[in-house]
Amino acid sequence: MEQQIRQNRAELYDLLLQYIHSKQAEKDLSEQDELSMDLLRKSITVLGDRLRDAEEKLAAAEKRLKSTQEYLHKLEVENKELEQFTYIASHDLQEPLRSINTLVELVATEYTGKLDENADNYLRFIRQSSNRMSDLIKALLDYSRIGKVKVKETVDCNQVILNVVDDLRAAIHESKAQVIMENLPVVDAYPIELKLLFQNLLSNAIKFRQNEVPPVIRITCVKKENEYEFTFADNGIGIAPRYQEKVFEIFQRLHNKLQYEGTGIGLAHCKKIVSLHGGDIWLTSTPGEGSQFYFTISA
Q1: Can you give the pLDDT at residue 127?
Q2: Which residue has the higher pLDDT, 279 or 20?
Q3: Which end of the chain has less Cβ packing within 10 Å, N or C?
Q4: What distance in Å separates the CA atoms of residue 194 and residue 111, rounded to the nearest whole number?
C-alpha cells in the first residue's frame, strides 16, 4: 500500500510540475489545448482523491496494527502473571501437604492394626489421596516451568530418544516393549522440554498398551518446507474419536486411575512444549489398534 501511495504522489507531482511549466504556453493555447488542460486538472483532482483515500486506509491499518500489538502485549503480560500465580500457588501448597503426609504417616505407624478395620482403610485412603495431590501439584509446577529458560540449542533427536529409552528401561523391560527409531534430525530446540516431550509420548505408548500384547512404538520424522514432522506410532489400546481433542487438555483423564496411573497432564505438557517450538500436535487413532501422535517443530 505504501508503494502505491508513493507512486500516486510521484505522478501527482509530475503532473503539477508540467502544469506550472506550461503556464506561459497556456496563454496561446487553442480551444483544443484548453480542453487538454482541463483534462489535466481533472486528472490531478482524481489522483489527489486517490492519494487521500490511500493515506486514510494506511492510517486505519496502522491504527489496527497498534491496537493488535497492544492487545498482544496485554495478553503476554496476563499470561506471565497466570504462570507466576500457578507456580506460586503450587509451590505454597506443597508445605501444608507435606505436613498432612507426615501426620498421616505418624498416625499410620502408631495405630495401624490397633484400631478397627475401617480405621485402617480410612488411613489408607487418606495416604493415597495425599500422594495423588502431591503428584498433581508436582505436575502443575512442571507445567508452569515449561519455557522458563528460553535458550535454544542444537539437539540431536536420536540421542534424546536414546536417553529417554535409558530412563524408561524398567518400564520397557517389564512390558517387553520394542522401540523402533528411524534416523531423526538435528534441530534447534529447548533440550529439557524436548526430552520431556519425547518421554511423555513414549511412556504413554508403553502405559496404554493392550493386554498381553507387547508394545511396539515406531518413531519417525519427515522434513517439510520449513518444519520437521515427527510421528510416534504405537499398537496400544487407541483413543475413541470423541476424546481425541480432549486428551490435550490439562488434567483430563480417559481412564480410571486404578487402571492407569498418572495425573492427566502429560499430553497438556506435550501441547505446550510443541507450541513453544512454534509447532502443532495432533493424533489419529483406532480403538483396539493403536494411535499415531504427530507434531511439528520449526526447521
Answers
A1: 79
A2: 279
A3: N
A4: 46
